[in-house]
Amino acid sequence: MTDNNIRKNYLKKYSEKTFFILGDEAAGYGALYAGCNFFAGYPITPASEVAELMARELPCVNGYYVQMEDEIGSISAVIGAVWAGAKGMTATSGPGFSLMQENIGYACMTETPCVILNVQRSGPSTGQATKPAQGDMMQARWGTHGDHEIIALSPNSVQETFYLMIDAFNLSEEYRNPVIVLTDGEIGHVREKIIFPDPDKIKLKERKLAKKEEHIFGGSNIPPMSELGKGQFLHITGSTHLEDGMRDVSTQKVHDVLVRRIYSKINGNRDKIVRYESKFLEDAEILLVSYGVSSRPSLGAVLRARQDGIKIGYLRLITIWPFPDKIFREFDKSNIKKILVPEMNLGQLFREIQRFVRCDVISLSRIGGVSFSVKEIYDVIKEL
Amino acid sequence: MMKEVIHPMDKYLRTEIFPTAFCPGCGCGTILNLYTHAIDELGINPEEIISVTGIGCSSWIPSPYFKGDTLHTTHGRPIAFATGVKVMKPEKKVVVIAGDGDLAGIGGNHLLHASRRNIGLVVILVNNLNYGMTGGQVSPTTPCGIKTTTTPFGNSEYPIDIASVVAAAGANYVARWTTFHFYQLKECIKEALNKKGFVFIEVISQCPTSYGKMTGLRTGLDFLKKFEKLSININYVKDRFFTDIEDKIVVGKIVEREREEFVNNLKKINEEKIKSLQ
Ligand code: SF4
């Protein structure tokens, strides 16, 4: 039996069944449905349940769980495993995510598909280790050094966490780039209903492998990949390299071509990567923009305000990076006069939105580990 | 007509990018030479080898010069990257070659835990006693008292006996040689390549450019003479702990064990699990 058959056979037992599980567990199952067969991690609240689930379930699909000595080791092992043919992921929270940044850059530079789940907690530093936050929006975008692009997705429920993990794996294969999934202590630790799909009905993006002599670091916008141990004598490096992977760290043009190409893979495909959910945009004069955990009370507040006759629209970002700038440019031409942005940080996406619109953008920031209530947001809407 | 001279080891090398970037007299060339000879004498097909390296002069031994799969990673992390590679490709020989700064300094924790895990990697730590590539700063293996660019008044710290640390951490095989012991080192690499579990070879090597400039050892030969004079075989010493190269260099096999290899253990779990589910 091939590993893929072992995996599907095993997942059949969950097919079309309803469970009541944690967001962290749903993330793990999403990964298994996506074909993940390698997980390396290090314990950290509130992400440890992902590792525990993977340690339990991966052997059943002939996959491997390795607990590394730290988060730097975890992301390193994932990248190594991916080049050895695996679909790999790690899961962590803020402090661990910070430790991973150097090698997330390595994954960008070597065009290594992999998934990093960050179950965000309240920082900076150890902060409120058990409490939710959305403070890593910018770290996800700019955490590693040098010019690069990143894909980041943010779900707002257990069921969506499951599906976005599959999306994350597919996007990472499609664009040969690391993909970050941003949940938080609340979405990760909430227990909700989930219905698992039939594994046969899940479309997976398979890795495009290069033919012998085909370049894997250039030659096309998204070059095909390869695998160690196939007799192709690959040279994979985080140093600036030529299309065949050999180092050239002194030619300006080589660096320019390489880094701009990697950048353009994501930047040039924004429309295909961007996902969002919207409601009541047609007549909206006020717009509420939110994402992840904050979008739940936000929607409640918008529904209540609509009942009062307030012309408010609702936009929930699912793709955080690349930033969906196009929709904001369009709002700029519409009747929308004010945009309210509730988020559990001091306004990280609020500033990003400001870059694309001329109307008033109002930050509703919340830190301290307690999520917004519907009423709190509703009261602010009333005053706008 | 002059006949083109081809070195018998050229077939293992990416000669198209020669000459190497190594300084004249550097020990990295010796190690590359012995490594290819070991592979040649064992008759290993280079397709069976995956080299994983870090950042530093010695990482350049396989990356880019050895013609085989090469994963050139970040500073200090090659063992962690190699862990992922080995788990997915247990049938391959996964070889890590990196320096003392990389493996004993910034990446020391990965070395410790890979030894403990007893994962089937062959790790060759090229100990040139300093950070050579960056210009000769003090490293975790620089002897006490030595002047380097960042210890201008002499090193106040003591060097780590990294091979003994790895032995204590649980590796299946640990040895130390110097670039002077080219025959023993080659035989040691051969033994290591066929050994299961975590295998560690520390090679005391010369860096005439960076270490030499502060210590007066100006040529490769100066180092080799010193290595010859100070080396003592482990079978003839009471205190096997390596103090530092200014005193004595204990060479030879430090430990050999037969613990089950890590990925093998993982595979057994998978086999049992999958069987029980059928
Ligand atoms: S700096 Fe030292 S270790 Fe590096 S190549 Fe030169 S001699 Fe060798």
Write structural notes for this entry.
- The complex is a heterodimer of chains A (384) and B (278).
- Chain A is of the alpha/beta class and 384 residues long.
- Chain A folds into two domains: 3-201, Rossmann fold (3-Layer(aba) Sandwich); 277-383, Rossmann fold, CATH 3.40.50.
- Chain A has 14 helices and 16 strands.
- Chain A has helices at 3-11, 23-33, 48-57, 71-83, 94-109, 137-142, 158-175, 185-189, 252-267, 270-273, 295-307, 325-331, 348-354, 374-383, and strands spanning 18-22, 38-41, 64-67, 88-92, 114-122, 128-132, 151-153, 178-184, 191-195, 235-237, 276-279, 286-291, 312-317, 319-321, 338-343, 360-365.
- In chain A, strands 2, 3, 4, 5, 6, 7, 8 and 14 form an eight-stranded mixed beta sheet that branches. Chain A has a five-stranded mixed beta sheet with strand order 11-13-12-15-16, sandwiched between helices. In chain A, strands 1-9 form a two-stranded antiparallel ribbon.
- In chain A, helix 2 packs across helix 3 (48-57), helix 2 (23-33) runs parallel beside helix 7 and helix 11 packs across helix 14 (374-383).
- Chain B has helices at residues 27-42, 78-88, 100-106, 108-117, 162-169, 182-193, 210-215, 220-230, 262-277; strands at residues 49-53, 69-72, 93-99, 121-127, 130-131, 137-138, 173-178, 199-204, 231-233, 249-256.
- Chain B starts with 26 loop residues before the first helix and ends with a helix.
- Chain B has 278 residues and is α/β, with parallel strands linked by helices.
- Chain B has an eight-stranded mixed beta sheet, sandwiched between helices. A two-stranded antiparallel sheet of chain B has the order 5-6.
- Chain B is built from nine helices and ten strands.
- Chain B has a single domain, classed as Rossmann fold (3-Layer(aba) Sandwich), CATH 3.40.50.
- Chain B is globular.
- The mean pLDDT of chain B is 95.
- The A-B interface holds A 6, 10, 38, 40, 59-60, 62, 64, 66, 68-70, 72-74, 76-86, 88, 102-103, 106, 228-229, 231-239, 246-247 and B 17, 46-47, 50, 52, 63-64, 67-74, 77, 80-85, 87-89, 92, 109-110, 112-113, 266, 269-270, 273-274, 277.
- The site of iron/sulfur cluster (SF4) has 12 residues of chain B, from loops.
- The site of iron/sulfur cluster has 12 residues of chain B, from loops.
